[in-house]
Automatic annotation (TrEMBL):
Annotated NCBIfam families: PRK02901.1
Any matching Pfam family: MR_MLE_C
Name of the protein: Unannotated protein
Gene Ontology terms, MF aspect: metal ion binding
Keyword annotations from UniProtKB, A to Z: Metal-binding
Taxonomic lineage from the root: unclassified sequences, metagenomes, ecological metagenomes
SUPFAM superfamilies per the UniProt record, alphabetical: Enolase C-terminal domain-like
Gene3D superfamilies in UniProt: Enolase-like C-terminal domain
Mandelate racemase/muconate lactonizing enzyme C-terminal domain mapped to chain residues: 85-175
Native organism: freshwater metagenome
């Protein structure tokens, strides 16, 4: 890894507006190269080996020219965390003006999950609903839930394994999107997703960057949705670049999660359900972490770089 990238390193802590999968403060590392600012932000619990594709993506973003774009504005979906207070759900829905679909986190409690879905439907009756299970269900639990949930655009990672997804797909009509099954695989090119997954969920950092993600798209030949990993505006913008570089993009993308942050290094607004590629310049005012946390991230990057 080029020393000049490390020399530009900044690490920030971004508070969230709500508890998002246990996260109330999102730490991200940013560095600058010839082609702009880049983000490295694997979650804190990830081991170095799992961080390697995230760093490969950040280095690509900083040092490589942008790909050919087919669009500069991207349709996005709203994201609803696993919250249950009706007023809070309403406030979160309002953060996503004009979106035509909402992704709702589910999987912990069926009654609360269904109430959350129904609340969003009542607030945005014209919006499609997709749910994200993060692999929490058995096949039987997924089948039972889908009988109660009403029409869904798709269900994201309902079960953990490819074998379970394949069994589930035989029993349901709802489309299945694969997330963890792809990005946590030792070799995502070796996966046989036939009869298991209808849609690929693509997150540019954990998949190793735009070039590698395009290789995966070409390999698996499935429809795609580009999504985020609760990144800062720098990481989100690179996700927007990925989405803009995909010729056939039939679904709204999960790239509006910056709306769930109370503070960010830049603002990429949602306008009529769309976000625009903007190559933002970060504003670090009041967001830098302590020197101890800075050194933790710097050491993490140096260790991870040895694995590339």
């Amino acid at each position: 890894m080029d020393q000049s990238l490390l020399n530009s390193l900044r690490v920030v802590a971004l508070p969230t507006k709500t508890n998002f999968r246990g996260i109330k403060l999102r730490e991200v590392a940013l560095f600058k190269g010839e082609y702009g600012w880049a983000e490295f932000s694997p979650f804190l619990e990830y081991k170095d080996a799992e961080c390697a594709p995230w760093l490969a993506c950040a280095i690509e973003a900083a040092t490589q020219p942008r790909p050919k774009l087919f669009r500069s504005t991207i349709n996005v979906n709203g994201t609803i965390p696993a919250i249950n207070d009706e007023k809070e759900i309403s406030q979160i829905v309002d953060l996503f003006p004009g979106v035509k679909s909402f992704k709702i986190k589910v999987g912990d409690d069926t009654d609360l999950d269904l109430a959350r879905i129904n609340r969003v439907r009542s607030l945005r009756p014209d919006s499609a609903i997709r749910v994200d299970v993060n692999g929490a269900w058995t096949v039987e639990q997924a089948v039972s839930f889908l009988k109660l949930a009403g029409e869904l655009e798709y269900i994201e990672q309902p079960c953990a394994s490819i074998e379970e997804l394949r069994e589930l797909k035989k029993r349901i009509d709802t489309k299945i999107a694969g997330d963890e099954v792809l990005r946590k695989a030792t070799d995502p090119f070796a996966l046989d997703l036939s009869g298991a997954v209808d849609i690929l969920m693509l997150k540019v950092q954990p998949l190793g960057g735009i070039k590698r993600t395009h290789d995966l798209i070409d390999h698996h030949q499935l429809p795609v949705v580009v999504s985020s990993a609760l990144e800062s505006a720098i990481g989100i913008d690179y996700g927007l670049v990925l989405a803009g570089s995909i010729e056939n993009l039939g679904y709204g993308c999960g790239l509006a999660t910056g709306s769930l942050l109370a503070k960010d290094v830049a603002d990429i607004p949602i306008i009529k359900g769309q976000m625009k590629i903007s190559s933002p310049t970060p504003n670090f005012d009041g967001l830098d972490v302590s020197m101890e946390r800075f050194e933790w991230w710097k050491n993490r990057i140096m260790r991870t770089a040895e694995l590339l």
